[in-house]
């Protein structure tokens, strides 16, 4: 039953599907199917015949999760108007297009960050809803063994913790004259940007040292305005620039607090105006939980003073915060002021430092637009929250405050700002030459390399690591453990550049130092073994990669607690290598163990958790369980979008994998959609010649190829080739990938001679390259075999298939599905050549592998069985 369009107040968690269609009768049969098949997942479906009704509905509801479905029955101009609201409204979870295809005028919808797919059939759309909001309904063992994310309310958001840690670092920094000037200039810019006269800033700068920070905070709106804006909006750049003022004000509050004799409990009042939406999200929804004020507070002991500060207007609610302060129960600093030199009105006031934490005790609706919120000042937070805070603080602890701040910014996803701070710190330290300064300089240069690496700037990372190495040589012996750390970092960077010879050389240098200085089960040895495993994996030597990952794990077992976070990386590596070897059951088991460790650590909402769900989705994709695969990709995406900080490249990876999944499902419009989402992120994050962009162009080209748009595909492949030829050496395996892909296009165009020419270019590179993954060579031999089979040259076809099989049998597990594909291709070639009896042998081997890999009831097994039955009929065997 289609619901009416009457406006109501919603307080629900299941999504409401809002179907925008000018033809309601056309939508009704689709909606009936949705409700019949998803009653446990969706609250209701509402149909709106025009955009105005939609916008009215958005404005009228709170605490509702909306899925917007758009049909192509509206003009582009109307939909553009709607999209402005869609991007801004946080209650809109996702947007789907239900249409045959987007018109040229409507392709801008692809740019909507909330667009999750374009669907022609209601069955496909229903499937997408199930994957986004429900659990897969199947018999997977892992469904029961993988615990779900804890969606229960937490004491504080992770963003609050990062903001508090940032504040704690800011107030400990040392500021020189340059930093002081930057602070006043930031105030000028703040006023200029808002059309205000900044002449008052000149007075503020000239007289700053004549008055106390609290005097300026109370008497002049300048300091209050600038700091409040920086703190509340979490403008990290401005916080750094105005850090001196924040530090000075906090120190004076702390000094007054330390001298105070106050021991009895007292209450102060603060008036604030808030939008109803902000009040609902930040206060009403968190009753009983903690609330952080991201600014300094000026409160009064007189409630009427707080009330008089509030004026009614139709856009905001008036909120009186009644704050109970018990000096015996909290150590959060505040300054109790009863000195008229601070406040001429003679009122007793209290100034609380920024990031004061309160528990929301009670919320009372007084009348009309007036609310009272009773708060209790506290520094008692639950052990999990404290553990999380300590974990991040220790991870970002370095010799200098500025370096610690850079580490925190990098962790928060601000690699660019972290690099700016590290460069400035390097410029200061490099002027001195004593051992202490050299140690600090080496640490900074190493961290600069680490930040470069995370941004994909591998060549620059290498330069900084080598600078750190040169700096260390001035004060450390060549076999010092700190030298081994740099060697290992250099090795990992060479791996990223595809230079495996140098990667092995530096990794072995690190291993030699650590083997000499450490016991056989030392954790530093485990780090080197793990790095060697990663290099072998990248090179395609999966057997040795597995060996070193297992060595890493054995050391960790003997030296760490079973729930140590370090195990997560080991389990992840073991999962990845078993996946590459085709042992999907074992890979899934390791990923489940990765997940168990991650969910037990303080940072369970971190991007690493999204990466693990993404890996699980990839396993299901490889085993042909696309429902499960999309479900876990969606789960990864949800976690990543809520994570703080959000790593955009992790999001791009998930989008890419969803694109690949849709491509495998032959839903090419959706594949293109997600590849474009990947591209949008990468184009913002990387320079135009970055190799990751080349990979995404390659993926998009493949989709164009699949739908017969060969010219568009060739353009993108050639764009990829140009990028990779600039970035990689001439014998890099990725160049072979492009020649292979160009060969597949020529094969599709029946230009077999040109196809073979491109394939030969690819094999020539792979045979020469020391970084070749043998399985890439096997894939091209298989493609060449396919060309020879299509032109009836069965002898050459079998020769290339045998090359493929020989490599796969050496590098893959006996149950890997790729072996079945090769054996099936061989059976087809033999059958075409009238060698049916011999073909039967290969076909039977193929179906045995498929049964073990996918199970007896899988569609892939049925397909192989059908072909085997066809061969049996040819030989008259029942």
Q: Any overview of this molecule?
A:
The chain is an alpha/beta fold and 878 residues long. Among the domains are: 15-134, 3-Layer(aba) Sandwich (Rossmann fold); 158-256, no CATH class; 260-381, Toxin ADP-ribosyltransferase, Chain A, domain 1, CATH 3.90.176; 695-708 and 723-874, Tetratricopeptide repeat domain (Serine Threonine Protein Phosphatase 5, Tetratricopeptide repeat). 62% of the residues lie in helices and 9% in strands. The longest helix is centred in the middle third of the chain and has 20 residues, at 435-454. The chain is globular and about 105 Å long. The model is unreliable at 1-12 and 136-154 (pLDDT under 50).
What coarse outline follows from CA principal-axis ratios?
globular
Average pLDDT over all residues: 83
Order the strands across the largest sheet as they lie in space: 2-1-3-4-5
Task: Please estimate the helix content.
Answer: 55-70%
CATH architecture of the domain at 695-708 and 723-874: Alpha Horseshoe
The largest sheet is: 5 strands, parallel
* CATH topology term of the domain at 695-708 and 723-874: Serine Threonine Protein Phosphatase 5, Tetratricopeptide repeat
InterPro entries: TPR-like_helical_dom_sf (IPR011990), TPR_rpt (IPR019734)
Keywords: Repeat, TPR repeat
TPR repeats: 442-475, 526-559, 568-601, 610-643, 652-685, 736-769, 778-811
Pfam families: TPR_10, TPR_12
């Amino acid at each position: 039953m289609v619901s009416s369009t009457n406006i109501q107040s919603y307080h629900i968690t299941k999504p409401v599907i809002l179907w925008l269609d000018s033809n309601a009768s056309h939508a009704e049969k689709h909606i009936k199917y949705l409700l019949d098949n998803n009653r446990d997942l969706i609250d209701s479906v509402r149909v709106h015949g025009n955009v105005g009704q939609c916008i009215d509905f958005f404005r009228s509801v709170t605490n509702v999760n909306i899925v917007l479905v758009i049909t192509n029955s509206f003009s582009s101009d109307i939909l553009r108007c709607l999209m402005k609201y869609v991007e801004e409204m946080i209650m809109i979870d996702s947007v789907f297009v239900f249409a045959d295809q987007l018109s040229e005028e409507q392709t801008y919808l692809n740019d909507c960050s909330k667009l999750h797919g374009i669907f022609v059939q209601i069955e496909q759309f229903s499937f997408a809803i199930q994957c986004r909001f429900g659990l897969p309904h199947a018999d997977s063992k892992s469904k029961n063994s993988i615990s779900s994310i804890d969606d229960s309310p937490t004491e504080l958001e992770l963003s609050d913790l990062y903001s508090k840690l940032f504040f704690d670092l800011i107030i400990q920094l040392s500021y020189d004259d340059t930093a002081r000037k930057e602070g006043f200039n930031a105030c000028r810019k703040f006023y200029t940007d808002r059309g205000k006269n900044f002449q008052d800033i000149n007075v503020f700068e000239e007289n700053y040292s004549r008055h106390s920070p609290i005097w300026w905070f109370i008497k002049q709106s300048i300091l209050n305005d600038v700091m409040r804006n920086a703190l509340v909006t979490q403008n990290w750049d401005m916080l750094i620039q105005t850090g001196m003022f924040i530090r000075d004000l906090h120190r004076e509050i702390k000094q007054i607090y330390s001298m105070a004799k106050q021991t009895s409990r007292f209450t102060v009042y603060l008036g604030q105006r808030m939008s109803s939406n902000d009040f609902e999200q930040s206060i009403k929804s968190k009753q009983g939980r903690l609330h952080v004020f991201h600014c300094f507070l000026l409160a009064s002991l007189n409630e009427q003073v707080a009330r008089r500060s509030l004026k009614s207007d139709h856009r905001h609610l008036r909120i009186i915060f009644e704050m109970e302060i018990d000096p015996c129960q909290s150590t959060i600093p505040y300054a109790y002021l009863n000195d008229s030199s601070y406040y001429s009105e003679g009122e007793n006031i209290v100034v609380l430092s920024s990031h004061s934490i309160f528990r929301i005790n009670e919320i009372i609706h007084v009348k009309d637009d007036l609310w009272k919120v009773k708060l209790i000042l506290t520094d008692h937070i639950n052990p999990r929250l404290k553990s999380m805070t300590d974990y991040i603080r220790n991870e970002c602890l370095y010799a200098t405050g500025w370096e610690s701040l850079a580490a925190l910014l990098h962790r928060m996803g601000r690699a660019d700002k972290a690099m700016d701070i590290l460069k400035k710190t390097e410029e200061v330290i490099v002027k001195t030459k004593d051992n202490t300064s050299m140690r600090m300089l080496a640490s900074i240069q190493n961290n600069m390399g680490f930040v470069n690496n995370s941004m994909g700037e591998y060549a620059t990372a290498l330069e900084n690591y080598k600078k750190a190495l040169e700096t260390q040589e001035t004060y450390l012996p060549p076999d010092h453990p700190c030298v081994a750390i740099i060697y290992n970092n250099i090795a990992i960077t060479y791996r990223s550049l595809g230079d495996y010879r140098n990667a092995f050389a530096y990794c072995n240098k690190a291993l030699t130092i650590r083997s000499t200085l450490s016991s056989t089960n030392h954790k530093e040895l485990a780090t080197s073994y793990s790095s060697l495993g990663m290099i072998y994996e990248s090179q395609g030597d999966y057997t040795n990669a597995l060996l070193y990952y297992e060595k890493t794990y054995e050391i960790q077992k003997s030296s760490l607690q079973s729930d140590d976070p370090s195990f997560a990386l080991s389990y992840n590596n073991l999962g990845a290598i078993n996946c590459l070897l085709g042992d999907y059951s074992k890979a899934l088991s390791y990923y489940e163990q990765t997940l168990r460790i991650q969910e037990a650590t303080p940072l369970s909402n971190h991007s690493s958790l999204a990466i693990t769900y993404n890996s699980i989705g990839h396993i299901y994709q490889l085993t042909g369980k696309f429902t499960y695969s999309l479900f876990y990709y969606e789960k990864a995406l949800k976690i990543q979008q809520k994570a703080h900080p959000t790593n955009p490249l992790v999001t791009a990876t998930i989008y890419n994998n969803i694109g690949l999944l849709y491509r495998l499902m032959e839903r090419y419009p959706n594949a293109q959609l997600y590849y474009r989402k990947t591209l949008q992120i990468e184009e913002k994050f990387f320079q135009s010649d970055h190799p990751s962009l080349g990979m995404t162009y390659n993926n998009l080209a493949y989709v164009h190829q699949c739908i017969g748009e060969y010219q568009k595909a060739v353009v993108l492949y050639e764009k990829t080739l140009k990028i990779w030829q600039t970035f990689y050496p001439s014998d890099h395996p990725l160049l072979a990938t492009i020649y292979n892909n160009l060969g597949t296009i020529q094969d599709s165009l029946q230009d077999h001679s040109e196809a073979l020419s491109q394939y030969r270019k690819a094999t020539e590179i792979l045979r020469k390259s020391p970084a070749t993954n043998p399985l890439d060579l096997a894939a091209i031999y298989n493609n060449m075999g396919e060309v020879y089979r299509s032109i009836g040259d069965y002898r050459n076809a079998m020769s290339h298939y045998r090359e493929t099989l020989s490599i796969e049998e050496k590098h893959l597990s006996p149950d890997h599905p790729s072996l079945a594909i090769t054996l099936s291709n061989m059976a087809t070639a033999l059958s075409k050549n009238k060698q049916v009896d011999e073909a039967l042998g290969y076909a039977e081997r193929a179906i045995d592998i498929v049964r073990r890999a996918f199970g007896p009831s899988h569609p892939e097994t049925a397909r192989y069985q059908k072909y085997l039955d066809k061969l049996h009929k040819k030989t008259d065997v029942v």
